[in-house]
Amino acid sequence: MAELFWEPEARAIYDALDDQPLRLGDAIELLLDQLEDDPGHESVRRRSRRTSKGDVIWKIDIRPSAEDWTLLWIEHPQRVGDVLIVYLGPSQYT
Questions:
Q1: Rounded to whole angstroms, how far apart are CA atoms 65 and 53?
Q2: pLDDT tens-digit profile of 27-50?
């Protein structure tokens, strides 16, 4: 089981989910459970992007409401097998 770590901005959005529709919060919780259970599973590794340095960022679309949201994560750089969530919020990436 992986441990989830957060960039501060992503964590602040997560902590403020009470201001969002319940379906969105439920979808995000389900997604976080999947990441903890198995970050190598294809359900959380369908789309990826590469940084200019060549690092892989995994993109997960969250679509429980009219506004699409995205979660971006990477394998934690110092903790093998763990996850670092770098973005959570409205989709701004393609």
A1: 34
A2: 899 999 999 999 999 999 989 989
Q: Which of 90, 86, 2, 85 is nearest to 40 (CA)?
A: 2
SS3 content of the chain, % helix, strand, coil (to 5): 30, 30, 35
Pairing of β 56-62 and β 69-75: antiparallel
Whose tokens are 């403020």? That residue is 16
Q: How far is CA 31 from CA 39, 51, 52, 66, 73, in A?
A: 10, 23, 27, 18, 12
For 34, the token pair is 């999947």
Task: List, for residues 58-88, the tens digit of each pLDDT value.
Answer: 999 888 666 789 999 999 999 999 999 999 9
Residue that is written with structure tokens 């979660």 in the block = 71
Task: Name the CA radius of gyration of the chain, rounded.
Answer: 13
User: Cα–Cα distance between 13 and 7 in angstroms, integer?
Assistant: 10
